[in-house]
């Protein structure tokens, strides 16, 4: 499932949803003592389905043959995708949002951060715990994915308070909101996808701490000329590569560049690009097949 998900994300998907028959077979009451009644929701009874969602600007029939070829080729690596069928269909934004809401519940993503869906009630359970309200909509990055957790952990290690931060590929806006909750000063959030920008703005509006975050559509950092203390990017490895020189140009000396969304086989390529640009690596963390890098831009005194 992870291999297929990676293939779909590398093809440009905005996000993926996994339905695994075993998840339904092993359902147990959650901590509130409730359990989903399988008769009330559609579910598969065998195997797994990985659904990828692409924006309307992507002509999916054009990339479908490549996806099918890569899925079939998994057998060469000892991963049998049988039956490995690949199909496509149009879906409305409303159906996407409904799919999220069935499975999205409060999640403790770091020691002090808990992400709560906008339609659920939750009260902090420990001193210092920050609660972030989120409606994921069509954006990828709700705090439940390893790449988002790694990004949040990286932010916790570099934020002292009052910094100027840029969030590249903001998606749901979760990293920007979390950074404000951790004490960052000014935050600029950018995403290429207008749908993600609207989703991020809706999430900012749910969190009073995020009221002054600037969110806008932009292609990475093209045309952006500023000097930030922190730049964070939870995006695909292939997109991180062209971002590296842009991040260096928009980062103060002594600042930090946090990247995530890096799958195993792309890690060294991304690492080499960051080092070649003159950064020093201060932290490398991994969760499953995913990697995150915290890089430091040295000052003249370093």
From TrEMBL:
Gene Ontology terms describing biological process: methylation
**GO CC terms, sorted:** cytoplasm; ribosome
Give the EC number(s) under which this enzyme is classified.
2.1.1.-
Q: Which reaction does it catalyse?
A: L-lysyl-[protein] + 3 S-adenosyl-L-methionine = N(6),N(6),N(6)-trimethyl-L-lysyl-[protein] + 3 S-adenosyl-L-homocysteine + 3 H(+)
Q: Which InterPro entries match?
A: Ribosomal_L11_MeTrfase_PrmA, Ribosomal_PrmA_MeTrfase, SAM-dependent_MTases_sf
**PANTHER family recorded for this chain?**
ELECTRON TRANSFER FLAVOPROTEIN BETA SUBUNIT LYSINE METHYLTRANSFERASE
UniProt-recorded name of the protein: Ribosomal protein L11 methyltransferase
